[in-house]
Write a structure and sequence with these properties.
Blueprint lengths: L8 H17 L2 H15 L3 H9 L15 H9 L1 H13 L4
Amino acid sequence: MTMEDKMTVDERRKYLRRMKKRYLQAGRKEKEWLLDEMEAITELHRKSLIRLMNGSLERQPRRRQRGRTLRQAQGRLYGPEVEYALSVIAESWDYL
């Protein structure tokens, strides 16, 4: 698969929700074929697919939020005077 063809996480979950209905009703041989197909399309490992098919497909929220971005931290770290000086320098160097 090329980079343009990669599925987003949400697209992958939507596809797996549809396949889960078929998977739960299928017999052993048919489950094998379905897993092969899901493996090829989603590029997930077989064991991960089995866990998803037998468990919940809902995405879990983050346990801990990400920290502040560098840009947010700079404003508080140095203060407005330094930020102004940096913006003047960046403008004089044509934002290199």
